[in-house]
Design goal:
468 residues; 4-stranded mixed sheet; two-stranded antiparallel ribbon; globular
Length: 468
C-alpha cells in the first residue's frame, strides 16, 4: 500500500491509514449525535434555507436557473421557492448558487469558509423523494460539515492565502461526504467519492464581488453530489486524494498538513458562526465596532476620520475601496464601516445602488482608511474615530467566538427573526412559518416529504413583492 506522498493509489482496508482514510473514518459513522450538535445542525439548516430563498431572485441565480430550465432533465428535485422540478445535480447547482448569492450564510473558521451553502443543497437534492429519516439527514449534514472542517484545517493557511475559495474547493468534499453518508456508501466508495470530488474542486478568491463567487458554491454542491453518486455506480479514483503526491493538499497548499492539526474534541459544528449583517463575515468585527461607537454617541456628521485596523488577510478579501455594485459593497470594509456609522443598517435591503451613491455614505466612506494590524496576531478589528472637536474614540471587537450551548434557544429565536426577514418577502409569512416548523421538528421526522413540500411552494410575484 502507498501512503501520503506516493503516486500510487492507496489500498482501502489496509491496516495503515492515509490522510483520506483518516477523514473518512472520523465522519463515516457519525450517527448517534449529542443534542447540542443536533440543535446546531438545525440552526445551520434553517439559516441556509433562509439565505437561499432570499437569493432566488438574485441575478446570478436567475441566470443559472434559466440555463438549467433550458437544458431540461429528469425531474427529481426541487428548486427552492419556485415550485419547479429539475434533475438532482441541477437542483444542487441552482440552490447552491442561491445559498451564497447574497453572501449571508454561516461561517466556520476551521474551514476558512461557509460550510452549509455547498453541502445542504447537495444533500437535499440527493435525498428528495427518498425515505430518509430526519435524524439520518442531520447525521449526514454533520458528516459533511465535519469533513469540511477536517480538510479545511489540513489545508490552512496557505490554501486560502494562495487565492483558493475554500467554500467552493473544500465545500466540494463536504457535499460529497454528506451525500455519501446519506447513501450509506461503503469505505471504498467513500474514498473514490473523495477522489472524484478532489479532481472537480475549484474556486478562486479573485471572483469575490462578482456573480461567479456564488456560482462556484453552486458548482461545489453539484460536483460533490456527482462525486458520491458516481462513486456509488462504480467510478474509481485515487483513494488518497488528500495525501498523495500531486493530490489535493500537495497541489493547493504548502503540502505540510497532517492529522496532527485535528486537535478539537467536539464536532466542529459547535463552532459555527452566523451572519447578522449581509456582508462578508470579515467585515463584521469592524461593523460591530462602528455600531458600538455609534450607540455610545458618535454622530456621523462630526466624524473627521476613521482608521480601521484588521488582520492582514482581510485586505485580500474585503478591501474594495470604491464599490460600484451592491455585491462589491459587501466586500468593502470602507463602505460597510461607513454604513454602520451613517445608518446602522446592514441588512440585505441596505445594500442597494441607492445606498452606494448616498452622498452621506460616500462622504463618510472617503474618510475611512483601512490598514493591516501589525501589533498582534489577534483576529479582532480596531475602529478608531477622530471627531471634529479633536476627540478620539476607539472600539475593538472580535466576532469569532462561538455561541455556547446555553444560549442556543436565544440564537434560534434570532435566526428565526432573520429567516422571516429574508423569506417573508419571497414566499409569504405562512410559508416561512411552515418551513420553520419543519426544520424545528426535523430530528424526529419519519421522512422529509413535508419539508420538501414546504420548500417547493411557489414564490410570490417578485415584481409585486420584491425582496426588501
Amino acid at each position: 500500500m502507498s501512503g501520503p506522498g506516493s503516486d500510487q493509489p492507496a489500498t482501502i482496508g489496509s491496516t495503515r491509514q492515509t490522510l483520506t482514510s483518516e477523514v473518512i473514518s472520523r465522519v463515516r459513522h457519525l450517527d448517534n449525535l449529542p443534542q447540542n450538535v443536533v440543535t446546531g445542525a438545525k440552526h445551520c439548516i434553517l439559516d441556509t434555507l433562509g439565505v437561499a430563498i432570499a437569493g432566488v431572485h438574485e441575478p446570478v441565480t436567475t441566470h443559472v436557473r434559466t440555463d438549467v430550465l433550458a437544458e431540461g432533465g429528469n425531474s427529481h428535485a426541487s428548486l427552492w421557492g419556485t415550485g419547479e422540478q429539475v434533475s438532482r445535480p441541477q437542483a444542487a447547482l441552482v440552490n447552491g448558487t442561491a445559498a451564497h448569492a447574497i453572501d449571508f450564510d454561516d461561517v466556520v473558521s476551521r474551514m476558512d469558509g461557509h460550510p452549509s451553502a455547498p453541502l445542504l443543497p447537495a444533500l437535499m437534492a440527493a435525498t428528495e423523494g427518498t425515505p430518509i429519516k430526519g435524524k439520518d439527514f442531520i447525521a449526514a449534514f454533520v458528516a459533511g460539515f465535519e469533513t469540511e472542517a477536517l480538510i479545511g484545517q489540513l489545508m490552512k493557511p496557505s490554501h486560502y492565502a494562495r487565492g483558493f475559495h475554500a467554500t467552493a474547493t473544500v465545500g466540494t468534499f463536504g457535499a460529497a461526504a454528506a451525500v455519501a453518508h446519506a447513501l450509506r456508501l461503503d469505505e471504498a466508495q467513500w474514498a473514490h467519492a473523495f477522489g472524484i470530488a478532489g479532481s472537480r474542486a475549484a474556486g478562486l478568491k479573485s471572483m469575490f464581488g462578482t456573480m461567479t463567487k456564488p456560482l462556484q458554491v453552486g458548482a461545489a454542491a453539484e460536483n460533490g453530489l456527482r462525486a458520491a453518486t458516481l462513486a456509488a455506480r462504480g467510478v474509481t479514483a485515487h483513494t488518497d486524494v488528500l495525501g498523495t503526491t500531486q493530490g489535493f493538499r500537495d497541489t493547493q497548499s504548502d503540502a505540510d498538513g497532517t492529522s496532527k492539526v485535528w486537535t478539537w474534541t467536539e464536532l466542529a459544528i459547535t463552532e459555527v458562526l452566523f451572519k447578522y449583517h449581509a456582508a462578508c463575515y470579515l467585515t463584521h468585527s469592524a461593523i460591530e465596532g462602528a455600531l458600538s461607537l455609534r450607540e455610545s454617541g458618535v454622530e456621523p456628521e462630526h466624524i473627521e476620520s476613521v482608521n480601521v485596523l484588521v488582520p492582514a488577510g482581510h485586505l485580500q478579501v474585503c478591501n474594495i475601496a470604491e464599490p460600484s455594485t451592491p455585491l462589491e459593497g459587501k466586500f468593502s470594509l470602507r463602505f460597510t464601516t461607513a454604513m454602520a456609522f451613517a445608518t446602522g443598517d446592514l441588512s440585505e435591503r441596505a445594500f442597494s445602488p441607492a445606498s452606494l451613491m448616498d452622498p452621506q455614505a460616500v462622504a463618510l466612506r472617503n474618510r475611512v482608511q483601512v490598514d493591516a494590524r501589525t501589533d498582534s496576531d489577534s483576529r479582532s478589528s480596531i475602529v478608531r474615530v477622530t471627531l471634529d472637536d479633536g476627540s478620539e474614540h476607539v472600539a475593538e471587537v472580535d466576532v469569532n467566538r462561538p455561541t455556547p450551548a446555553s444560549h442556543f434557544a436565544r440564537r434560534w429565536d434570532t435566526l428565526v427573526t432573520k429567516f422571516h426577514s429574508l423569506v417573508d418577502p419571497v414566499m409569504g409569512t405562512d410559508a416561512a412559518d411552515r418551513i420553520v416548523r419543519e426544520v424545528a421538528g426535523l430530528s424526529s421526522a419519519e421522512c422529509l416529504e413535508s419539508l420538501f413540500s414546504a420548500l417547493s411552494m411557489q414564490a410570490l410575484d417578485h415584481h409585486q413583492n420584491p425582496v426588501v
